[in-house]
Design a protein that fits this description.
Layout: H1 2-25, E1 60-62, E2 78-81, E3 87-89, E4 94-102, E5 105-112, E6 120-125, E7 127-129, E8 136-137, E9 142-146, E10 157-164, E11 167-169, H2 177-180
């Protein structure tokens, strides 16, 4: 009887060890969609961001692809996976400089505090605004929700942009490394000994 119990306990301990080692050695889920390049920080952008626009570490569906010329093709922002109704948050402190519709899409723009002249301005679309133009926002404060229509992504997403004057910049440059590269939390199973 004791031998059977010892075998069961040893088997459970070995299984626990295998599951733990597998979980610890497994790569984290991909942050970037297939073909999307990881961000290259822009040295002209201060890392004032303190929150992702959606979720705690959303999947990037399409990254920053700066155009070769002012009117050339490219992607002037970052597309973050987010289902309709998801709260959209300000990444940094600032003031809502626009909240309305542009070409039929809901857009919210936030002018970021203390980022020089002209100040940096983030944009989020398609978003139904919950704040009005002129309101002050803190990092992580909800500024709206993802609209059900108006997304240019094949799956629902939020397009997050960054500009200084007329120059488009990589919005991921706003995020500090600890926020940008933090992997997801992992829960490991706990097994009883009998």
């Amino acid at each position: 009887m004791r031998a059977k119990r010892c075998v069961r306990v040893c088997t459970r301990l070995i299984l626990l060890l295998v599951v733990t080692v597998t979980a610890l050695l497994a790569p984290p889920p991909p942050l970037f969609a297939a073909g999307a390049a990881p961000p290259v920080p822009d040295a002209t952008v201060p890392t004032v961001g303190r929150a992702w626009p959606v979720g705690s570490h959303p999947r990037i569906l399409r990254g920053w692809e700066p155009p070769a010329s002012a009117y050339g093709p490219g992607h002037r922002g970052v597309d973050l996976a987010a289902p309709p109704g998801t709260p959209v948050r300000a990444v940094a402190a600032g003031r809502v400089s626009f909240a309305g519709r542009v070409a039929g899409k809901g857009v919210v723009s936030v002018e970021l505090t203390g980022t020089g002249e002209p100040p940096l301005r983030t944009t989020y679309e398609p978003v139904t605004a919950t704040l009005e133009e002129g309101e002050e926002v803190e990092p992580g404060e909800v500024i709206g929700t993802v609209d059900t229509t108006g997304s240019h992504c094949t799956a629902s997403c939020v397009h997050w942009g960054l500009r200084r004057g007329d120059t488009y910049l990589n919005p991921l440059s706003l995020l500090p490394p600890w926020l940008l590269h933090r992997g997801p939390s992992r829960l490991l199973p706990v097994y009883g000994a009998a």
